[in-house]
Write a structure and sequence with these properties.
4-stranded antiparallel β-sheet; single chain; alpha+beta
């Protein structure tokens, strides 16, 4: 899947939760931990589905990934490279640590512009 494919798939694009973080997705689907607001979610069962972007820095270059999580299942819908300037900025901003990060700041601004959201 390419960014263009996401942009043209209105149902998928409209299902993206731009505020979801990797930690919150785990709390929602795999644990009974705290969430941004208990009233935000109707229920916490296997029928809940969350679609969100993350940045994975475990490889040589950070990878932007669109994830669909439903219950205990997780599916990567697409993976994308960041523009080199954003890649450098992002890696400096996190101290070049390995991990999975929420999409925020300039990366989110760039992504929303690319997807025309």
């Amino acid at each position: 899947m390419r960014l263009k494919d996401i942009k043209e798939n209105y149902n998928l694009l409209n299902s993206v939760d731009w505020e979801m973080t990797p930690e919150e997705a785990i709390a929602l689907h795999l644990e009974w931990g705290p969430l941004r607001s208990q009233s935000y979610y109707n229920s916490r069962d296997n029928d809940n589905e969350t679609v969100y972007f993350v940045i994975n820095t475990w490889k040589q270059h950070p990878i932007l990934t669109l994830v669909r999580r439903k219950g205990f299942d997780s599916e990567e819908l697409g993976s994308f490279n960041l523009p080199k300037n954003l890649e450098r900025e992002f890696m400096q901003g996190i101290g070049k640590y390995k991990g999975v990060y929420a999409v925020e700041g300039n990366v989110r601004d760039w992504l929303k512009k690319e997807l025309e959201v």
